[in-house]
Amino acid sequence: MSTRILAAAHAGLVSCRTCGLLVRPVTPTHVGHCPRCDERLSWRHEHAIQRTWALLIAAAILYLPANILPVLTTNTLVSSQSDTIISGVIYLYASGSWPLALIVLIASVMIPLGKIMALAFVLISVRLRSATSNRQRTRLFRTVEFIGRWSMLDVFVDTFVVALVQVAPLMSVDPGPGVVYFMAVVVLTMFAAQSFDSRLIWDAAHARQDRNGH
Amino acid sequence: MATEGDLDDLPQAVAVPAKRARFSAVWIIPILAALVAIGIAAQRILSEGPTITIIFKSADGIEAGKTFVKYKDVNIGQVTAVRLTDDFGKVEVTAKMAKSAAGLMMEDARFWVVRPRISLSGISGLSTLLSGDYIGFEAGVSTTRQHNFAGMDVPPIIVGGSPGRQFVLNASDVGSLGVGSPVYFRRLPVGQVVAYDLAADGKSVQIRVFVNAPYDQFVNAATRFWNASGVDVSLSANGLDVRTQSLAALLEGGVAFETLPLATPVAPAAPAPADAVFTLYGDRVTAMKHDESISQRYILYFNESLRGLSVGAPVTFFGVPVGEVTDVGLAFNPKTLDARPRVQIIVYPERLIASLPVSQERAAEAALREQDERLAIVRRMVEERGLRGQLKTGSLLTGQLYVAFTYFPKAPRVKLASSGGLYEVPVVMSTFPEIEAKLSGIIDKLERLPLDAIGENLKASLATMDQTLKDGSTLLNHLDAEVVPALRTTLDDARSALGSAQRMLTSTEATLVGPSAPGQQELRNAMQELGRAARSLRVLADYLERHPDALIRGKTQEASPK
C-alpha cells in the first residue's frame, strides 16, 4: 500500500451505521449509542461474519431445491410440462433463442451461485486475515450487493407469465414450488450481503500495517 | 493524522448497558433451510415409485418424458427412456411409476400402446389423436411383483375389469372370426371374441368369448353357440329364409348364442360358470337341433332293404320329427350267415315335448328328464300300445326313406329288448310289399281279360285314334309355334334378371368390400384428413407450449433456414 489508511476504529473512533456520525465510544468494550439518532453503535456490524455465514449457508441449501424443483408448469390442451430453471434454459437454447437462454442462465443460475461463492470467498478471506487485493475484494462485495436485486428476474418472469397466460383450457401456466425456494435464495443472499461489514476487509490490512511497525 | 484536540471535539457516546448474546439467533435460518431441504428430499425419496421396463415391438408414438402410463385414464407413470434392446430386435421402454401404483405392478399386468384404431366394429382411441399416444395399463390378479413386462401389440378387448364372464367355445376351425368379433344374443351385440388358440392336440380351436354383464346370465347349460358369420339362406316349404346378424357380422364374422327354449319352462337354469366350455356350431339350425343332454339311442333291425335310407334321415313319431338316423349297416352272424339290416337312431324327447300343448309340457319334461322314467314310458308304448318302427318313403321321386314310429294295436306282443347296450325297438314291414302284392293281383286279373275281342274293338278304335292323333299333331304344332317362343322369352328374361342380380352383387362388392372400392377409399381419405387435422392441432399445441407468448402477440416470424 502506497497510501496509508486511517480507519476510524484504528483511531479509537466509531461511526454510526445509520447516520454516519463519527463518535468517540464510551469505552472500547461498551461502545454505546449514537447521540444523534440513538442507533446502537458498534465497532463493526454485530456478529457480521456469523450472520452472513448463517444466511449464506441457508441460501446455499435452498439453492438445491430451487434448481431441482420445477418453477413453471405449462398446461396445454394436450399435455402438461414442468420446467425447472435449467430445463427452461435448455429448452430455450434448443428452440433457437440462445440470447434469451443466456440471459436466463446468467440471471437465474450463475448470478445466485456467483453471489454465494463471492460472499463465501470474502468471508473466508476475512477469516484468514488476508490483506492482499483489498480493493478488488471490496469491489467484488459491492458488485454482489448491487447485482442482488437483478437476480429476481426469473421470479418476475414467472409471475408475469402466470398472470398473463391463463386461457384455460387451451393453455395455462402455474408456478412451481421451485420459484419459492429460488426467491428465498435471492432474498437470503441479499440479506447476507447486507449483514456483512465491508470494513472487515480492511481490518486485516490495518492489522498488518500495525505489525509492520508503522 | 488527526490531533488529540480534534478528537476531543467529537461528541461522547451515551453509555447504555448492553446485553450480549453469544450465539446469534440468525442461525435458525440455515437450520430451517436445511430442514426444508431435507423434507423435500425425504418426500422425493418416499414418493419414489418403482421403475419398470416394458418391451414393445416398436416405439411408435412413445416419447421419453411425454408419454404417460394410464390406468382407468389416471396417470400412474411416465416414460423416462426409450431404447433398443441389446439384440436390437425390440424396444425397451423405461417408465417411472407413481408410488401409489407400485401395488399394481404384478407379473400379469398388461401394457399396450393406445393409439387410434379403426375396425369394422368401431373406432377406438380417438382422444389420442390430440393427446398423443399413451401406454394403457391393465392390472392383473397375481400377487407376485415384477418390474419387467412384455407389452402387448394389440390392446386387450376387455379392460377395466368390465363385469361379465368369459366362456370357451370349441370349434373345428376359427372361420372368419377374429379377436374383437362380436357376440350376439337375439341380434344384440353383447360381447366379443377375446382370444382364440389351437387346442393342445391340434384337432380343434378354442375360442374365448367375453359376454358382458348382465347378458352373461343368459348363458347356461342349455345355451348353444354358433358361428353367425355370413348369410344363412334356406329354402323350405315355408319359402326363402335369410338369416344374418348384422352387417358387421356379415363382413367380419361373429358368434351368436341362444338358449334352447326347452330348458326354460322347468326352472330357469343356473347361469353357466365362467370359463365353461361350449361347442361352437356351424350354423343356427345345427346348433339348435342337437341336444346331447337329453337323448336316447335305439337300434332297429329291419327285414327289408335299406336302400334309400341314409344317415341323418328323420325319425318321426306320428309324423312329428323326434330324432334322426345315426347309423345304417348290417348285423351279421358268421355262424348262421344271417344278415339283418341294422339302423341306429337317436331320439330327442325334448322335441316331442316341444310339440305338446303348453299345459302339458312341464309334466312331460319332468318325466322325460329321468332316464329310467323315459325308458319305462317307451317300454309301455312298445309293449302295451304296439309302438313299431317302419320304413317309409319320404319322396316318391328320390326314393328317400325315413323311419316312422306309429302304434300298431294289432301287432304281436313283443318285449322291449336290449342288445349291445341299446334298446331294440321292434319293427313292422314297410307298406311297399303290400303294394307289390296288390300289383300282382291286378296283373292276374289282366291275364284273364278277353284280349281277342278287345283286339277287334281296338282296330276300330285305332282308326278313330288316327284322326285324333292328327288333331293332336295340329295342336302340337300350334303349341310349338306359339307357346315355345313365349317360353323362351320368359327364360331369357329370367336369365337377364339373374345377370343383373349378379352385376349388382359385383358392384356391391366393388363399392363396399374391394380394396380399391370407393367406400374404402373415402373412409381412408377421411381418416387421413382427420389425422392431418389432428397433426396440425398438435403442431399448434406444441407451438403454444414453446411460445406461450404467441397467444398474446401472435406468431412471430420463424428464422428461415440458410
What does this structure look like?
The complex is a heterodimer of chains A (214) and B (562). Chain A is α+β, with helices and mostly antiparallel strands. Chain A has two domains: 1-43, no CATH class; 47-211, Butyryl-CoA Dehydrogenase, subunit A, domain 3 (Up-down Bundle). In chain A, 55% of the residues lie in helices and 9% in strands. In chain A, helix 3 packs across helix 4. Chain A starts with 13 loop residues before the first strand and ends with a helix. Chain B starts with a helix and ends in a 9-residue tail after the last helix. In chain B, 34% of the residues lie in helices and 28% in strands. By secondary structure, chain B is α+β, with helices and mostly antiparallel strands. The model of chain B has no long low-confidence stretch (mean pLDDT 79). In chain B, a hairpin with a 2-residue loop joins strand 2 (68-71) and strand 3 (74-84). The chains are: A alpha+beta (214), B alpha+beta (562). At the A-B interface, strand 2, helix 1 and helix 6 of A face helix 2 and helix 12 of B.
